[in-house]
């Protein structure tokens, strides 16, 4: 045997032994925590990365293992560990301790830059201080006119499906309704009937999400240097151009308009119209902040606006879908919701005001119950940038942690033996159900959703418009789920509508 072959083999063996020792050391940190059987080096990659249907199966199985053992679970993607948990106390500690996210989130950064969802910890800390106060109740109240107009239009569209078979309500209607609504409120439009979502924008938006998901599912293209060589990357860049172009164009226009109104205000000495005062697009709020704070750059404003649009679009559309699905198979719940609407609106189909929203208590319980069982974002990730001792184990620095919202919502330990049953009444019982840290649809702790009030107001408005006029019929036993980052239905034709007979 030539000497070089000998030396090369020796080197290879050394490297393998070294890697193996490193791996052993990494794995020993999680000794005693349940995991799937491991292969050397690749860990569980072959078991857990597959299509969204498989990911869903694993998520559900891991949730049960965690519940049964009262313990977290660890998944190994090669040398990287992901610790999965939904224990309410641990979730509280983790989400309050860590604001850093693992590198998977950087897949969205071509599009969303340093917006709140994808920003690294330090950048997030700086920006959240400015943005935390932006989605106040009064800002959201200013959006009700748009919410009502969009809800009304959705009902008119759904009426065209009356008397027909089950249809794909998300892709045919809801996705568009929510994207249009969120764009109108995030970017601002002068007239409510004006549409800003073109087919080009809509397609680019959906394609971008799809490309991010495809990348997340394929470890081979996780490193940036490799991803940049793929056709997927080039397509992503093209789609992002379309999306950025829209936010940029609107932003320029708004800046100009703001300058103009300032001038005319100065000239008219506060004789401006009062009616324009209430609606304030998210973009306008950010541009005002940008005027007084140079650290909030135009680029950053655009990233925040794009982030809001992504954050609110599919989440709200899916919540509407799962709620319609539940209502359609629980006539008792749907009737009770209708009765509540009757008690508020009588026979009137007037727009819904903020007072009306606060009276829709049962409707809110319905939404909470939907989000508990079908969290549109079934899990979020955090990165441990230091050791964190918890009640039964310590999370070592460098661990990626998956907070399992799906598991939390279905935990019998927390919600009782009827955890898997859809029962909105549980939210209205004296004690309130579950416990803090177990309702995770909006995440929890320091990096939780900032759009909750917005989401609730929009969901209630749309559902009220729908249930006042229509009745849903569905068969959720055909519902098959998958996890494409978001929790999605595999096939969509599950819902039918009937015109409501006024009783
Ligand atoms: C039912 C609807 C919604 C659900 C279930 C939902 C869920 C979530 C979740 C789970 C997170 C945490 C993400 C993570 O840590 O990776 C989040 C963050 C966020 N959401 Fe929502 N969301 C909803 C609606 C909205 C809406 C309507 C908006 C905006 C109008 C919005 C804006 C955001 C933003 C900006 C963040 C990032 C917060 C931060 O990191 O500081 N969300 N949302
Ligand atoms: C950007 O948008 C403007 C106006 O909507 C359009 O005229 C222009 O062609 C767009 N540019 C790109 C690169 O898409
Ligand atoms: C719905 O859940 C939220 C927690 O996110 C809670 O504050 C609210 O009171 C719940 N609503 C009802 C009607 O129980």
UniProtKB/TrEMBL annotation:
PANTHER family: CYTOCHROME P450 315A1, MITOCHONDRIAL (PTHR24291:SF161), CYTOCHROME P450 FAMILY 4 (PTHR24291)
Keywords, sorted A to Z: Heme, Iron, Membrane, Metal-binding, Monooxygenase, Oxidoreductase, Transmembrane, Transmembrane helix
Database matches in CDD domains: CYP4 (cd20628)
Comp. bias (Basic and acidic residues): 257-266
Keyword Iron: yes
Regions that span the bilayer: 6-22
Protein's name in the database: Cytochrome P450
One Pfam family recorded for the sequence: p450
Keyword Transmembrane helix part of the UniProt annotation: yes
Gene: HaOG200063
Family: Belongs to the cytochrome P450 family.
Annotated stretches, region: Disordered: 251-271
Signal peptide: none
InterPro entries: Cyt_P450, Cyt_P450_CS, Cyt_P450_E_grp-I, Cyt_P450_sf, Cytochrome_P450_Monoox
Single Gene Ontology MF annotation: iron ion binding
PROSITE patterns: CYTOCHROME_P450 (PS00086)
Cofactor dependency: heme
Positions bound to heme: 449
């Amino acid at each position: 045997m030539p000497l070089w072959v000998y030396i090369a083999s020796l080197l290879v063996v050394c490297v393998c032994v070294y890697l193996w020792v490193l791996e052993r050391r990494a794995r020993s940190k999680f000794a005693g925590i349940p995991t799937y059987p491991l292969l050397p080096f690749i860990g569980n990659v072959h078991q857990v990365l597959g299509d969204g249907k498989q990911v869903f199966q694993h998520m559900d199985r891991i949730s049960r293992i965690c519940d049964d053992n009262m313990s977290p679970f660890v998944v190994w993607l090669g040398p990287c560990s992901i610790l999965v948990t939904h224990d309410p106390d641990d979730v509280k500690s983790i989400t309050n301790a860590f604001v850093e996210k693992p590198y998977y989130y950087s897949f969205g950064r071509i599009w969303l830059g340093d917006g709140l969802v994808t920003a690294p910890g330090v950048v997030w800390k700086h920006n959240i201080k400015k943005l935390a106060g932006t989605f106040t109740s009064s800002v959201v109240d200013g959006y009700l006119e748009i919410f009502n107009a969009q809800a009304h239009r959705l009902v008119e569209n759904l009426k065209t499906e009356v008397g027909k078979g089950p249809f794909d309500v998300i892709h045919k209607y809801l996705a568009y309704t929510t994207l249009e609504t969120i764009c109108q409120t995030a970017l601002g439009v002068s007239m409510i009937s004006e549409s800003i979502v073109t087919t080009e924008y809509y397609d680019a938006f959906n394609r971008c999400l799809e490309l991010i998901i495809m990348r997340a599912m394929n470890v081979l293209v996780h490193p940036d240097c490799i991803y940049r060589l793929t056709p997927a990357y080039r397509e992503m860049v093209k789609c992002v151009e379309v999306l950025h172009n829209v936010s940029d164009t609107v932003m320029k226009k708004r800046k100009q308009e703001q300058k103009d109104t300032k001038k005319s205000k100065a000239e008219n000495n506060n004789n401006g119209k009062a009616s324009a005062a209430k609606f304030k697009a998210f973009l306008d709020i950010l541009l005002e902040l940008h005027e007084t704070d140079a650290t909030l750059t135009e680029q950053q404003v655009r990233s925040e606006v794009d982030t809001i649009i992504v954050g609110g679009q599919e989440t709200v559309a899916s919540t509407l879908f799962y709620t319609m699905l539940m209502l359609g198979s629980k006539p008792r719940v749907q009737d009770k919701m209708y009765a509540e609407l009757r008690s508020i609106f009588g026979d009137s189909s007037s727009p819904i005001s903020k007072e009306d929203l606060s009276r829709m208590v049962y409707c809110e319980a319905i939404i909470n119950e939907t989000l508990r069982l079908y969290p549109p974002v079934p899990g979020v990730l955090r990165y441990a940038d230091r050791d964190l001792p918890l009640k039964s184990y310590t999370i070592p620095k460098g661990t990626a942690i998956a907070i399992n919202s799906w598991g939390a919502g279905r935990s019998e330990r927390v919600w009782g033996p009827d955890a898997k049953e859809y029962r909105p009444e549980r939210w209205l019982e004296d004690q309130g159900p579950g416990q803090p840290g177990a309702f995770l649809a909006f995440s929890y702790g320091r990096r939780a959703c900032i759009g909750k009030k917005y989401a609730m107001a929009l969901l209630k408005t749309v559902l009220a418009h729908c249930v006042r006029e229509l009745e849903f019929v569905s068969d959720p036993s055909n519902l098959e789920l998958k996890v494409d980052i978001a929790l999605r239905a595999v096939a969509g034709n599950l819902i039918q509508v009937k015109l409501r007979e006024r009783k």
